[in-house]
Amino acid sequence: MKLRRELLTARGNLSPEQLRVNAVKVRETLLDQPWAQMAGLVACYWSTGAEPETHGLVFALWKHGATVILPVLRENDDLDWAVYDGPDTLAPGRFGIMEPVDTRRGVDAIRTAALVIVPALAVDRKSGVRLGRGGGSYDRALARVGPNVPTVALLHDGELIDDVPAEPHDQRVRWAVTPRELTRLM
Ligand SMILES: Nc1ncnc2c1ncn2[C@@H]1O[C@H](COP(=O)(O)OP(=O)(O)O)[C@@H](O)[C@H]1O
Ligand SMILES: [Mg+2]
């Protein structure tokens, strides 16, 4: 899809310094929210490449006493979940993405999260429709999340856009965080 390619190219042009600055802003914005501070079980992701960086965020949530679960990518592209227990408890999984070495809690572990933080290439500012990298993993995971749980996509500036194409299986997120702002979507 052309839109995915354009978004990935723009991400590829972000400097390491810009990525660091973005990560701090996104983390601070999110951790300022009472509903984020109070979540006892948080489903997050371990960022890779030019994705909005989550390593500091995961560490901060964990340090503040939350239980953080991170995805373990299954062969069928569905997401299993395992508990993060500090920086030394991750090992490369499929595609070299770091995953917790802890016991897998199953694809339904996300159902019990009080806060769900997901990656996205873009989010539709009107509908909250989320564009992923094309594997559909988070469409499956988000379909298991209850209606009252805050679901948050982390973005770089310029990735909260109009007219994200959506198919019936595409899931929406309720919040988007960019380095500039936090937006309630639905
Ligand atoms: N709930 C689901 N169950 C099974 N397969 C799904 C589901 N949601 C999405 N998929 C699969 O994932 C593929 C990619 O989805 P897509 O929305 O294009 O990716 P992404 O959301 O990662 O950008 C879909 O074509 C579909 O086959
Ligand atoms: Mg999708």
TrEMBL record:
It is an enzyme of class 6 (ligase). It comes from the Bacteria. It catalyses: (6S)-5-formyl-5,6,7,8-tetrahydrofolate + ATP = (6R)-5,10-methenyltetrahydrofolate + ADP + phosphate. Keywords: ATP-binding, Ligase, Magnesium, Metal-binding, Nucleotide-binding. Its EC number is 6.3.3.2. Its cofactor is Mg(2+). InterPro entries: FTHF_cligase. Pfam families: 5-FTHF_cyc-lig. One of its GO terms (molecular function) is 5-formyltetrahydrofolate cyclo-ligase activity. Belongs to the 5-formyltetrahydrofolate cyclo-ligase family. This is 5-formyltetrahydrofolate cyclo-ligase.
